[in-house]
User: Which sequence fits this backbone?
């Protein structure tokens, strides 16, 4: 079996593993393995193939790491509108109870709401900021 065939099989296995696990870094490793296969096609020796594969794969992983680190992190799932469609919706609080909670009618059911820490509870229109269990955490709209 040719060296390039072995490199392509390893690259394919890395892509398959990435599809199963969802680890994006495996895809970067597969790019390095493909670079090793291309080095084998160019007729480079095994040590040069290994260096090319390691340099390209390692460089791709490092680049991916630094790009992802610069991006702002996503909010937690409870406060992320992409995960929970209740975040950002509005509710009307008629009166707050002494314990800092209120009952509101939302989506055809009664919900318990609480205000953000540090805010003074005031009746009126509020925006859902986060969903914690079966409780809506709201802020003044």
Assistant:
């Amino acid at each position: 079996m040719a060296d390039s065939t072995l490199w392509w099989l390893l690259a394919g296995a890395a892509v398959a593993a990435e599809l199963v696990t969802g680890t994006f870094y495996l895809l970067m490793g597969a790019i390095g393995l493909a670079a090793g296969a291309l080095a084998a096609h160019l007729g480079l020796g095994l040590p040069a193939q290994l260096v090319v594969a390691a340099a390209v794969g390692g460089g791709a992983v490092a680049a991916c790491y630094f790009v992802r680190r610069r991006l702002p992190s996503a909010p937690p799932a409870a406060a992320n509108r992409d995960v929970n469609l209740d975040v950002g919706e509005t509710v009307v609080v008629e009166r707050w109870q002494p314990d800092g909670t209120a009952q509101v009618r939302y989506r055809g059911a009664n919900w318990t709401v609480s205000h953000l820490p540090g805010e003074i509870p005031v009746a009126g229109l509020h925006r859902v900021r986060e969903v914690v269990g079966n409780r809506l955490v709201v802020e003044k709209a």
User: Anything to note?
Assistant: Residues 23 and 70 are 19 Å apart (CA to CA). The chain has a mean pLDDT of 92. The two ends are 68 Å apart (CA to CA).
